[in-house]
Amino acid sequence: MISSIAELIADRIGTMPAGERRAAQTLIASYPMIGLKTVAEFSAAAGVSSPTILRFVARLGFQNYPEFQSSLQDELAAQLQSPAIRTLNPPSPGGGTVSPMLEATLDNMRETFRHLSDRQLADIAARLVDRRGKTFLIGGRFTDPLARYMAAHLAVVQPDVFHLAGQESTWRDRLIDMGKRDVLVIFDIRRYQDSLARFAEKAHQRGVQIVLFTDQWLSPIARFARHVIAGRTAVPSAWDSSAALFVVAEMLIGAVTRQLEAEGAKRIREMESLR
Amino acid sequence: MISSIAELIADRIGTMPAGERRAAQTLIASYPMIGLKTVAEFSAAAGVSSPTILRFVARLGFQNYPEFQSSLQDELAAQLQSPAIRTLNPPSPGGGTVSPMLEATLDNMRETFRHLSDRQLADIAARLVDRRGKTFLIGGRFTDPLARYMAAHLAVVQPDVFHLAGQESTWRDRLIDMGKRDVLVIFDIRRYQDSLARFAEKAHQRGVQIVLFTDQWLSPIARFARHVIAGRTAVPSAWDSSAALFVVAEMLIGAVTRQLEAEGAKRIREMESLR
DNA sequence: GGAGCGCTGTATCGTATGTTACGTATTTTG
DNA sequence: CAAAATACGTAACATACGATACAGCGCTCC
User: Fold this and answer.
1) How far is the C-alpha of B51 from the C-alpha of B55, rounded, in Å?
2) pLDDT tens-place string over residues B25-75
């Protein structure tokens, strides 16, 4: 079974003429980067002419050069998705077998945060803190609990935090309360819910700032969102995992809380005295 | 110091107009693959026009699109050279707020699973699967969303799954429906809620099997529970983290689903046909 | 040693791609 | 509310890129 282009080359390099073989060796030497550049650059690096490169990729079975490049990119993408970073997750001491699902979940978190800067989180936290408006939270069929979780915490440190529950018609009626100063936090992962998209669009039209938690394929709501957090959700299971998004939500909660504390919000102190 | 394009984007995304921000978000979401494709494909993926993509890369400081792509490729090449992940999260500028929390969360998960054997999880999954009784789920003030999350998933693959919501008096009345064949899943971490403990005790007296998700200090409910899952919750934040428990819940959901599928439960097939 | 075949490079062509100019829509500001 | 500024998309444009035709060269085999 041949699954990568590198293997394909190794398989056929024996039957190639000299020029194409040089092309093959050049590609293998700095695999796969040189293959992503132009034919001219590739040919220059290999010390052959452009047509030789094209004949080379044709021999590998590709119809044309772009098709060859796409194939290389797909390979790269797959490689990046499942990072060969297993070494970072120490092979669980104590002999306890750690399930592939835990591995995948930890990888998802690392990947998610690799694309998520402190700056971005700080921006979102700032938006949640620094305003005189209200905060609304809502989620999809399986992600609504995440909205609830976040709402439960934020409501402690801030006034005017509302979780939108129940029927679509119920929250649609709440639109009337929303305006430019308000923030709407939406959780939406595959399969994306039309009802949420409709709601998001209407809220957007009213000038509401939307913060979207979604998966790496981006919910259609991303088009209306001011801030988008894309978390990895793939795990070896029948279900998608929201764990990475959950962790991001917790961090956001923490960031907001910290910022409010720093501002010396007397609400926090009052809260303590109420206990 | 800004070393990667991803950081560059994170740094400037705040100052970008809406269209370019969508471009930025799309790139980050599947970083960096979409940036290696053509402008047309990039623009289509982001849902904006080609010129917007070009203005986006121009704002990042590149003279033209090919230069931007070369830069991405160089970055990729460097990353592939040193398989060890270098820049998981650059030492966060301005007080390192995120990374320690992420590290703590990941540590929590590893610790949690170190004390949690596959056997234990399998036993709990089996108990949730192999019975003719009902499943009830409930949580505390901040953990109830986890109960909801689990209930939302289990209810899809099984009949008779109920989340207990609302007032204490409401669920107390549901006790009448509970018996020896039933399972009650409770989430309770510090500060433990008296109301939950009272409820758990009464359920226990009726012979209900209790599965408890709690923290490492164990909720008082542990004395009534048949199965106890103790997750680590400590993070450098004002709040405790439920992330580890969340992951355990997801794994349990996955295990139950897998087992039901293996049993060829026709419910799953019927479910598909109902879509 | 000569003829045939195959490989390779040069030069040209067509086209897909990035680029730019301009008009419209949207937002911001006084 | 009006006016200016900014942002965005449509459409025309230029170029750089991949593709192809053809000629030269070397190699092999008779």
Assistant:
1) 6
2) 999 988 889 999 999 999 999 999 999 999 999 999 999 999 999 999 998
What's the pLDDT band for A272 if we cut at 50, 70, 90? low
Task: Quote the minimal CA–CA distance from B153 to chain A in Å.
Answer: 7
Report how far apart the first and last C-alpha atoms of chain B are (Å, whole number). 51
What are the start-end ranges of the H helices in A60-99? 65-81
Distance B189 CA to D27 C1' (A): 82
Distance, CA of B7 to CA of B141 (rounded, Å): 37
Q: B76 touching A, CB under 8 A?
A: yes
> Coil, strand or helix: which one is B163?
strand
In the numeric block, which tokens belong to residue A72?
A: 């290389």
Residues 12-71 in B contacting A (C-alpha not used; CB under 8 Å): 13-14, 21-22, 25-26, 28-31, 33, 36-37, 47
Q: Contact at 8 Å (CB) between B238 and A268?
A: no
Burial bucket for residue B6 (CB in 10 Å: 0-12, 13-18, 19+): buried
Q: How many whole angstroms separate alpha carbon B152 and alpha carbon B156?
A: 7
Name beta bridge partners: B184.
B136, B210
Q: What is the pLDDT of residues B122-132, one digit of tens each?
A: 889 998 997 67
Contacts of A153 in chain B (CB under 8 A): 142, 239
What is the phi-psi region of residue B78: left when phi exceeds 0, alpha when psi lies from -120 to 50, beta otherwise? alpha
Cβ neighbour number for residue B165 with a 10 Å cutoff: 15
The model's pLDDT over A130-166, given as tens digits with 9 standing for 90+, comes to 767 899 999 999 999 999 999 999 999 989 999 999 8
Residue closest to B202 by CA, chosen among B174, B229, B233, B230:
B174
